[in-house]
């Protein structure tokens, strides 16, 4: 698992290029917060399949595979499982570093179930 903590006032799509840098993958499944032309162009350059929910204001709609997009619920389920850990759900950690450590620890516990 790889993630980046982002300030709440920034667009989510701004932090995606550093997150996917150096990782080989065949596609990206994401919600409409990640629907940006720059990200779509980078994914096209990498030859990755794009499965991103379209923002309603997008001028040129992208074709997405509905069957693959349906698998996105697994990601949502993982976040729900993460929020079962009270310290994560309430952001009880005082620093970003300790919050990041809690996320890694909770992900390890979830994976071991």
Primary descriptors:
single chain; mainly alpha; Tnp_DDE_dom; 2 domains; 45% helix; two-stranded parallel sheet; 113 residues
Structure overview:
This is Transposase DDE domain-containing protein. It holds the Pfam family DDE_Tnp_1_2. Residues 29-111 form the Transposase DDE domain. It comes from Paracoccus alcaliphilus. The protein has 113 residues and is mostly helical. The model has no long low-confidence stretch (mean pLDDT 85). It folds into two domains: 12-64, no CATH class; 73-112. The protein has helices at 16-20, 37-46, 66-69, 72-82, 86-89, 96-112, and strands at 27-30, 49-52. It has a two-stranded parallel ribbon.
Summarize the structure.
Pfam families: DDE_Tnp_1_2. The protein is mainly α.
Helical fraction equals: 40-55%
Number of distinct helices: 6
The overall strand count is 2
State the domain count: 2
| Oligomer classification | single chain
User: What is the topology, as strand order, of the major beta sheet?
Assistant: 1-2
Our Rg estimate from Cα atoms comes to 16 Å
Low-confidence stretches: none
SSE run: HEHEHHHH
Assess the beta-strand content as a share of residues: 5-15%
Describe the sheet with the most strands: 2 strands, parallel
Q: Which word captures the global form? A: globular
Question: Secondary-structure map with pairings?
Answer:
Layout (H helix, E strand, L loop, with lengths): L15 H5 L6 E4 L6 H10 L2 E4 L13 H4 L2 H11 L3 H4 L6 H17 L1
Parallel strand pairs: 1-2
Protein name: Transposase DDE domain-containing protein
InterPro entries: Tnp_DDE_dom
Organism: Paracoccus alcaliphilus
């Amino acid at each position: 698992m790889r993630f980046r903590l982002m300030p709440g006032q920034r667009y989510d799509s701004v932090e995606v290029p550093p997150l996917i840098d150096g990782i080989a993958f065949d596609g990206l499944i994401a919600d409409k917060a990640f629907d940006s032309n720059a990200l779509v162009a980078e994914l096209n350059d990498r030859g990755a399949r794009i499965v991103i929910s379209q923002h309603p204001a997008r001028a040129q709609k992208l074709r997405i595979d509905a069957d693959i997009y349906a698998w996105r619920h697994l990601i949502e389920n993982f976040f729900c499982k993460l929020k079962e850990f009270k310290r994560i759900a309430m952001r009880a950690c005082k620093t970003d570093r300790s919050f990041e450590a809690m996320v890694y620890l909770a992900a390890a516990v979830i994976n071991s179930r």
